[in-house]
Amino acid sequence: MHDATVLALTAGEPAGIGPELCLQLAEKEREASIVVIASQQLLGERAKLLGLDVTLHPWQPGTEPQTAAGELSVLHVEGCASFGAGKLDTANSRYVLETLTIAAKGCLAGDFDGMVTAPVHKGVINDAGIEFSGHTEFLQELCGVERVVMMLATEELRVALVTTHLPLKDVSAAITPERLTQVATILNADLKKFFGIEQPRILVTGLNPHAGEGGHLGREEIDVIEPTLEKLRVDGLQLTGPLPADTLFTPHWLDQADAALAMYHDQGLPVLKFQGFGRAVNITLGLPIVRTSVDHGTAIDLAGTGKADAGSLHTAIRVGEQMARSLKSVNRKTLN
Asked: Would the N or C end of the chain have less CB density within 10 A of its end CB?
């Protein structure tokens, strides 16, 4: 295991802002050891378009990445069919997925201590005839784990999700005792492992308005959520809820919690993004590797303008480093 914490950074959708966010990292010297996983030609073309003076250095496993201003280490990936900013091309889809595969396998092999992902465009990948519902599910399958948990975080708030990229009509059926147990258990364990919280305090939302209003607004709380939380409390998890989502996200509750667990994507994430959009990080828990990401999309309309804000990427890198160091520490204790 190498001493420096080395992170793989996938450049995401070629037509989006991902490549230029990667290039912006080279504007000044940085502490983070980053290897960009991308087409070197794509990065070169985007640097030329934006007038950025960046030297791209081919990287080999086991070597220290460049961290000086104007320098960027790159693990070149073949297959990028077009380099135009703002112009989506389905022919780039397999290349995009190849960058993710290389980064994840590099983490599993120990070449990287974690991976950070710039945004991909799910629609264009699906238009290419490839089933893809998001980074989270892709990495779950690649790493061969039964369940992962999507969590977004700012300095002040962490929100994890029981279900992720599902149509709203399918959410209720997906909230089973098994899924809720797996998600809450992973969240609790990884808050300990990656964030050093000895006894995580987790707030759990209900599914329905007013957490079901005693069954008058739905029975999911009574039939599934409450009994499952009670069993998990017996196992030692500190879970409060189910609470109405419209009051859970208030200082009265949040000031005494380490994370919130929401039942579906648009129940928890609008609050998180309103509170900290542009400086939040998307974290995948439950994987055998560290994975963080930006909290925004590909911003096709901004690509090539030089106006993309790298704030969320800096947060994703900082949190990825912290998590990777924590994992190293846990692994060392296990070996000893």
From this structure: C
C-alpha 188/C-alpha 192 separation (Å) is: 7
pTM over 0.85: yes
Q: Which of 154, 191, 144 is nearest to 269 (CA)?
A: 154
Tokens of 164: 């992720």
Report which residue type is found at 217: L
DSSP string, 95-152: HHHHHHHHHHHHHHHTS-SEEEE----HHHHHHTT-----HHHHHHHHHT-S--EEEE
Q: Mean pLDDT throughout 93-118?
A: 97
List strands edge to edge, sheet with 6-10: 55-58, 71-76, 33-38, 6-10, 114-117, 291-294, 281-285, 149-153, 158-161, 259-262, 201-205, 238-243
CB 313 within 8 A of CB 118: yes
Per-residue pLDDT tens for 52-98? 999 999 999 999 999 999 999 999 999 999 999 999 999 999 999 99
Q: 179 in the Ramachandran plot: left (φ > 0), alpha (ψ -120 to 50) or beta?
A: alpha
Query: Counting Cβ atoms within 10 Å, is residue 326 exposed (0-12), middle (13-18) or buried (19+)?
Result: middle
Structure tokens at 137: 């599910």
SS3 (DSSP) at 6: strand
For residue 33, the cross-strand partners are: 6
What contacts 297, CB < 8 A, 6 or more positions away? 16, 119, 121
For residues 260 and 187, give the distance between their C-alpha atoms in angstroms, rounded to a whole number: 10
